[in-house]
Design goal:
Order of helices and strands: EEEEEEEEEEEEEEHEEE
Helix content: under 10%
Number of strands: 17
Shape: globular
CATH superfamily of the largest domain: Porin
Number of helices: 1
Strand content: over 45%
Radius of gyration: 23 Å
């Protein structure tokens, strides 16, 4: 088994700077610093010492009539630009967001919303998962509109003129970065009546992106567009939170032995002892289905041939993960721990590759 042990020490730098203008608003800069010690079993570790730093620029202000705006620019380790957004909060027309491929708009903000003490099952430091998550247009430069909340319910629509996963600069275009997808649209209904005080949160989302003609190939798929969907429910009863969700992605692949669709599911339960201490357990599963293995002269070889017959069917590959977590906060210092195991990684089919990691962060 491939074991990974990761110990992290992080410090919140807080507000590093604040710049204010009489009319335009203010700009705050916050940052984080993290030091890690990572040990890997069954692999060459080398020097186990690592570090990570990040900066976030957050600007906000008020327009005429009481409407507000904000802009967020995030820079990851070594001042590498990560993502940004510009948000306009109107008085009666809802919220408009221009997002530069942050991944959180549309159904991308609902890839795994299950209760947890710290992180998603796939985001506790396990390497080599290559887990496919439904993102819709969230990974491309997009514009979204969220309706004003009515009885705890909002409707969000996100649109990308070309769902190509590119972050465009000012006055820039993505050009021919991707010839596979055209325009894409996400729609998400979020029903959340008084959820913060106990209750439920139901969310339903769908995404569709046009599939452009595959250049340089003789095989075209004219059966429809790229589609994604998600539905989930979370319930809060006192200190206990529980939830489950499922999502799927239909790629409509036009070649043989290619990914045809993915199906994901996750569930979690968290117990909040008090405002400072919480425990959780969560599971996540993912299935990958392939197109036919033959029809154009292609066949499976090696170990796969010895295990299966020569039919056109390729069995699905499956991944399952589970994570126990605890989080404790005292005096502004947070102690977080996760014990995570995956029975497979990278959708391995012939020989499963399990993963295991234990992550401690302060």
């Amino acid at each position: 088994m491939n074991k990974l042990t990761k110990i992290g020490l992080s410090a919140l730098c807080g507000s590093l700077a604040s710049i204010a203008a009489a009319n335009a608003g203010s700009l705050d800069v916050t940052g984080t610093a993290e030091m890690t010690w990572t040990g890997k079993g069954g692999e060459v570790t080398g020097n186990p010492i690592g570090m990570n730093t990040g900066l976030t620029f957050k600007g906000s202000g008020e327009l005429d009539g009481g409407q507000t705006f904000s802009v967020t620019i995030a820079q990851t380790d070594k001042a590498a630009w990560s993502s940004s957004n510009i948000t306009l909060n109107t008085n009666s027309l809802g919220t408009f967001v221009l997002s530069s491929a942050e991944g959180g708009q549309g159904i991308g903000g609902y890839d795994d919303n299950m209760p947890r003490a710290w992180e998603e099952v796939f985001d506790t430091g396990t390497s080599g998962l290559n887990l496919n998550l439904q993102k819709g247009v969230g990974s491309s430069t997009n514009i979204s509109w969220t309706t004003p909340k009515a009885l705890g319910t909002t409707l969000q629509i996100a649109y990308a003129p070309d769902n190509d996963g590119v972050q465009n600069a000012n006055k820039g275009t993505s050009g021919s970065a991707s010839d596979h997808f055209g325009q894409g649209v996400d729609i998400v209904l979020d029903i959340n009546p008084n959820f913060d005080a106990g209750g439920f949160n139901l969310f339903i989302g769908a995404s569709e992106s046009e599939i452009a003609k595959e250049k340089g190939t003789t095989v075209e798929n004219l059966s429809g567009n790229h589609q994604e969907a998600v539905v989930g429910l979370q319930i809060d009863i006192g200190p206990l939170s529980a939830g489950a969700q499922i999502s799927g992605e239909r790629l409509r692949a036009s070649t043989y032995q290619a990914a045809d669709y993915y199906g994901n599911s996750s569930w979690g339960i968290a117990f909040n002892v008090n405002d400072d201490l919480s425990f959780s357990y969560g599971e996540a599963r993912s299935i990958k289905a392939m197109t036919k293995k033959s029809g154009s002269g292609t066949t499976l070889t090696g170990a796969l041939m010895s295990k299966h017959d020569f039919s056109d069917y390729i069995p699905k590959s499956r991944m399952k993960g589970e994570s126990w977590q605890v989080a404790y906060t005292i005096g502004g210092v947070a102690l977080k721990y996760a014990d995570t195991k995956w029975d497979n990684s990278g959708y391995s089919f012939d020989v499963k590759v399990p993963k295991e990691n234990r992550t401690l962060a302060v």
